[in-house]
Design brief:
Elements: E1 21-24, E2 28-29, H1 32-41, E3 42-46, E4 53-54, E5 58-63, E6 69-71, H2 100-106, E7 111-115, E8 120-124, H3 129-156
């Protein structure tokens, strides 16, 4: 095991340069079909495998844009009128889970690293996409009100 016998002074917050998270909008088993769609919107890595249980608010990958994206990863491919080759939960998407140290450094202020004896997951603090959207709207309106009062004070002053 690694040990350290020295400490350094605080050097400031960790610098984060990451894109937004891909967040699951429903619970169920992740399917290969949906993960292929997720993979097309990811800059890699994807944090879940096909057949793995996911829940609403779980982070399943890192996106290609700066904002978070809510996607489904449990949708099954419709098989009407087509022959099905292989199962719907086959492999085909590359999963990579970050080491816990990297996961802690990767998350934003509205996210958690969830560690259990069997698994580690990344998730949003507020799991519901609808509730996260309401919170974002409240934060933006509060921020705008703060700016307008500062502008009014500057004009008066």
């Amino acid at each position: 095991p690694r040990t350290s016998n020295c400490f350094a002074e605080y050097r400031g917050d960790l610098k984060k340069a990451r894109n937004g998270a891909i967040v699951s909008i429903n619970a169920g088993k992740a399917t290969r079909y949906s993960l292929k769609n997720v993979e097309s919107k990811c800059c890699k890595p994807i944090f879940v495998d096909a057949g793995e249980e996911v829940y609403e608010g779980q982070i399943v990958g890192e996106g290609m844009v700066l904002t978070d994206q809510d996607l489904t990863c449990t949708r099954e491919k419709t098989t009407q009128g087509a022959a099905v080759v292989g199962g719907t939960h086959e492999a085909g998407v590359t999963k990579k889970m970050l080491p816990i140290e990297d996961a802690v450094a990767w998350i934003e202020d509205d996210e958690f690293v969830e560690v259990t004896p069997k698994t580690m997951r990344l998730r949003k603090i507020v799991l519901s996409a609808q509730d996260r959207g309401k919170m974002d709207k409240k934060e933006k309106s509060t921020e705008l009100r703060g700016r307008s009062s500062e502008t009014a004070k500057a004009h008066r002053g």
